[in-house]
């Protein structure tokens, strides 16, 4: 990564405390939504974050922008830790980062006109005095491909695609340097999705934004993102340059996600269960590699040892991946060869 690091997340964990049983007995348990996740994003770079439902993508996105809980870890923005920032430091985080949400209607106040919805953001962030505000709103609308004649419309008068463009205009109004887009096109028609993705690509390059793009749609991630990170049960299990990961996935979980994209319909969403069985509960994570109960290649040691995350720019947390304990020579994973029956775990 040659551009300077904008965001450097180190060992971030988010645990949600669980309610005690009615009897109030036993230790208090917690749900490990995000465990020990590190990620870097450079200015002008888009990183895709994928994984099954419940893997912790939104929790991670919200935590790094301090819109949600954060239990442990550091979130360095230009080298300054924001994980416990308050006052002026937290205000800087709010000024320099923005989130774009999935539901274009739900994320806008139905009572506010487009002028008021964008004007409010400009006002709160002190971007323009009242005099210059309308001109800036027109500029922002043009930036996201909307006509100034929409200024006095309310969300109810707009299409889903137009609302999402307003959501993006609101995010851009603060002139952020980092955007987290959480499933921001999932609720839109496929044709509109393409337009919004093109818009994000263009804006990302023009404004040199760092972007974390959370999505289920792997084909879209492949088109938009420079790098990709794959999350399973709160951990990143593979990360690397997008084309390298797609062409030679190193973790069996990533491979199963990629194999689930049918070539005839590259825009298809990830199936809710690309592998047999459901992911284990994040309250009771399995010992060793959390993926082992569903892994077609699992060995007995996968049950006991957490695999290290290794491999340089293209890394994976699997003992069979290049640099992993059973593949120190750096070969790709075997195609589909399952482990021998004696090596397999009974629960596979
Ligand atoms: N506020 C909360 N309190 C308790 N548990 C939560 C809370 N928010 C999320 N979780 C749990 O944390 C885990 C991760 O959830 P999260 O919404 O981050 O997943 P996700 O990868 O974004 O899923 P999806 O693809 O469905 O959006 C899930 O088990 C979820 O039930
Ligand atoms: Mg989510």
Automatic annotation (TrEMBL):
Domain ABC transporter: 9-258
Record's keyword annotation contains Nucleotide-binding: yes
Gene Ontology terms, MF aspect: ATP binding; ATP hydrolysis activity
Annotated spans, Disordered: 329-348
GO CC annotation: plasma membrane
Membrane topology: Peripheral membrane protein
Domain of life: Bacteria
Main subcellular localisation: membrane
GO BP terms in the entry: peptide transport; transmembrane transport
PROSITE patterns assigned: ABC_TRANSPORTER_1, ABC_TRANSPORTER_2
Subcellular location field: Cell inner membrane
Stored PANTHER family: D,D-DIPEPTIDE TRANSPORT ATP-BINDING PROTEIN DDPF-RELATED, TRANSPORT ATP-BINDING PROTEIN
Family: Belongs to the ABC transporter superfamily.
Protein name: Peptide/nickel transport system ATP-binding protein
Source organism of this protein record: Sedimentitalea nanhaiensis
Top-level taxonomy: Bacteria, Pseudomonadati, Pseudomonadota, Alphaproteobacteria, Rhodobacterales
């Amino acid at each position: 990564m040659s551009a300077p690091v904008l965001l450097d997340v180190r060992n971030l964990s988010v645990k949600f405390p669980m309610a005690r049983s009615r009897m109030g007995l036993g230790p208090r348990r917690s749900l490990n939504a995000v465990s020990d996740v590190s990620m870097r994003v450079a200015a002008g770079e888009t990183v895709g974050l994928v994984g099954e439902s419940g893997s912790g993508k939104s929790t991670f996105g919200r935590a790094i922008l301090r819109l949600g809980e954060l239990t442990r870890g550091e979130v360095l923005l230009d080298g300054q830790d924001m994980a416990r920032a308050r006052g002026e430091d937290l205000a800087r985080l709010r000024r320099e980062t923005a989130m774009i949400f999935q539901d274009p209607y739900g994320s806008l106040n139905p009572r506010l006109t487009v002028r008021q919805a964008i004007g409010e953001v400009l006002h709160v962030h002190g971007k323009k005095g009242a005099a210059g505000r309308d001109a800036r709103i027109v500029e922002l609308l043009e930036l996201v491909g909307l006509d100034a004649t929409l200024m006095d419309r309310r969300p109810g008068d707009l299409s889903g695609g137009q609302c999402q463009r307003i959501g993006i205009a609101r995010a851009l109004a603060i002139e952020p340097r980092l955007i987290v887009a959480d499933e921001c096109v999932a609720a839109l028609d496929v044709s509109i999705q393409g337009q919004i993705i093109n818009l994000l690509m263009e804006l990302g390059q023009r404004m040199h934004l760092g972007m974390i793009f959370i999505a289920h749609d792997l084909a879209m991630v492949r088109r938009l993102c420079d790098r990709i990170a794959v999350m399973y049960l709160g951990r990143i299990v593979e990360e690397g340059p997008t084309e390298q990961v797609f062409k030679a996935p190193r973790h069996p979980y990533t491979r199963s996600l990629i194999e689930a994209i049918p070539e005839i319909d590259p825009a298809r969403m990830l199936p809710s269960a690309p592998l047999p069985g459901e992911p284990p509960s994040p309250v009771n994570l399995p010992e060793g590699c959390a993926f082992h109960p569903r892994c077609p290649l699992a060995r007995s040691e996968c049950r006991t040892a957490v695999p290290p995350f290794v491999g340089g720019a293209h890394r994976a947390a699997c003992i069979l991946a290049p640099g992993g304990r059973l593949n120190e020579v750096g070969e790709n994973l075997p195609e589909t060869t399952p482990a021998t029956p004696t090596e397999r775990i009974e629960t596979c």
